[in-house]
Design goal:
Elements (H helix, E strand, L loop, with lengths): L1 H5 L2 H41 L10 H6 L78 E3 L6 E3 L4 H6 L4 H12 L5 H11 L6 H14 L1 H10 L5 E11 L2 E9 L4 E6 L4 H8 L6 E4 L3 H9 L4 E4 L1 H12 L4 H21 L8 H21 L5 H17 L13 H17 L5 H19 L4 H13 L14
Parallel strand pairs: 3-6, 6-7
Antiparallel strand pairs: 1-2, 3-4, 4-5
Helix pairs in contact: 5-7, 5-17, 7-16, 7-17, 9-10, 11-12, 11-14, 12-13, 13-14
Length: 481
């Protein structure tokens, strides 16, 4: 019976059709699986294209710690809000007042009779005004004398700082450099400002030369800071790019506890860190997770790192935007633990002592590490983040054990903000000479602001030192010299 069934033409045909349909079904299922994988990748790419830092330059850590604002039923009025403390300018000191002008009646305003001035104080108002001509033009002449005893003539030379400065004095030269470096002004803008406010007509080429002279005067103070980099216990480092004649240049910001230094380099690789820090650096590098920092740490194990948790928060939030629910749930779990960690960091004053504060930080950091390494689903994005945490959890949580370290790299990011603004205004550098100027003036601006130092006075002192034999001023605080 079985042999007869096997030889049945109808059965053979049906068996063949089943075999063909099975092959087609396997092909369709394979295509469907490939299509689903492609859709998943496209969704991840779409999520990646929409990836940002919450459309803000604020660190994401503040977004997950601070509670969301409640919608107000009333429209907020403009200006200072109720309860806002008044900000008043401090009064002028007597030494700040240049002139005293009295306003009094010379005769009686009612009958015209004579009046006697009383010592009773009246209304007083101190007014500041721009003078019509804020510059002082001085002609320096050297005199010649004749000695009647020896019969020779002698000409008194001009003071060296006067002769070396030329037409424009040290403070005016420093003012031009201040406008160019600190105010992001173009040479054309400086030219117009000096013409319209000071009555000075200065060619753009002359303004360039003045800035270059100030740049040369800052060489000693800049090199002093650069020599101090390898000796720092901690450095916040960040980098940003700009174009120079169509080629990329990278501005590196090194933020130390007592100074900030900028360096422009055509590469973004770890070789920059090798040149700037060398092999003797034993401190902690606070940075993002960029590969150049990890490569430097791998080549120099005596150094350590504190990777920025704010950048980690951005990567965790990216998991929530992926289509896979497993990725989304894993991202939500990590955000809960990160929120707890940042919440502890911002409530230091609520702990009895530093020891209790550190113990709470360490415990929460360990919980975060467990969730990141043990609860990760078997998806590409989550597995990648879990692998990163397994390898570098100590570098992410170093701040919980070491006092003085911050969990984020905000210090370097804030320092480099001035550079980013200057890049947008000036469109970057155009030559090695311009690179040198930017490195030195940005370093001077950031370090002076770091200590609340008068930038214009420092630029003037540095330029005077270039003209004379006096030593140039240092950007380092007196205690660190």
């Amino acid at each position: 019976m079985d042999e007869q069934a096997a030889e049945c033409p109808r059965c053979v045909e049906l068996a063949h059709r089943v075999e063909v349909l099975e092959r087609r079904l396997a092909h369709v299922l394979r295509k469907l699986s490939e299509a689903e994988e492609r859709i998943r990748r496209l969704q991840e790419q779409l999520a990646g294209s929409n990836r940002d830092s919450n459309n803000s330059s604020k660190p994401p850590s503040s977004d997950i710690v601070k509670p969301p604002k409640k919608p107000s039923l009333r429209r907020r009025r403009r200006g200072a809000q109720k309860g806002h403390p008044r900000h008043e300018r401090p009064p002028f000191n007597p030494g700040d007042i240049d002139f005293l002008k009295r306003h009094a009646h010379e005769s009686c305003p009612q009958c015209g009779g004579s009046v006697e001035q009383l010592p009773t104080p009246g209304q007083a108002l101190v007014q500041v005004e721009l003078v019509q001509k804020p510059t002082l033009v001085t002609e320096h002449r050297s005199g010649t004398c004749h000695c009647q005893a020896c019969g020779q003539d002698f000409t008194q030379p001009l003071p060296p700082e006067i002769a070396a400065a030329g037409t424009f004095g040290p403070r005016l030269t420093a003012y031009v450099a201040y406008l160019k470096g600190a105010c992001h002004a173009s040479f054309s803008t400086i030219q117009k400002l000096l013409r319209e406010t000071c009555g000075l007509r200065i060619a753009r080429g002359t303004l360039v030369q003045l800035c270059q002279r100030v740049g040369r005067s800052l060489q000693v103070s800049y090199e002093e800071l650069r020599a101090q980099l390898p000796q720092q216990k901690s450095l916040n480092i960040d980098e940003t790019s700009h174009r120079e004649n169509g080629r990329w240049q990278w501005t590196w910001a090194f933020r130390a506890p007592h100074f900030t230094l900028f360096h422009i380099d055509p590469t973004r690789s770890a070789s920059v860190l090798d040149r700037m820090l060398g092999s003797e650096f034993t401190g902690t590098i606070a940075s993002d997770y960029y590969s150049a920092y990890r490569r430097y740490l791998a080549l120099h194990p005596q150094a350590d790192a504190q990777f920025c948790l704010a950048h980690l928060v951005r990567d965790v939030k990216f998991l929530e935007s992926l289509p896979d629910t497993a990725d989304q749930q894993f991202g939500q779990q990590l955000l809960v633990e990160l929120k707890q960690l940042f919440g502890l960091w911002h409530t230091r004053e609520q702990f009895a002592d530093e020891k209790a504060f550190r113990a709470a930080l360490v415990a929460q950091g360990e919980r975060l590490e467990r969730v990141a390494t043990e609860h990760a689903p078997d998806t590409r994005a989550s597995w990648k983040l879990a692998r990163r945490f397994r390898k570098h959890a100590r570098q992410y949580l170093r701040f919980t054990r070491v006092p003085g370290l911050e969990p984020t790299n905000n210090a370097a990011e804030q320092a480099i903000r001035h550079v980013v603004i200057d890049r947008h205004v000036t469109q970057g550098t155009r030559s090695p000479r311009g690179r040198t100027w930017c490195e030195r003036i940005w370093t001077t601006i950031a370090t002076c602001r770091q200590h609340g130092r008068d930038l214009l006075s420092f630029l003037e002192q540095s330029f005077l030192a270039l003209l004379t034999d006096i030593p140039p001023p240092s950007l380092l605080p007196a205690a660190t010299n």
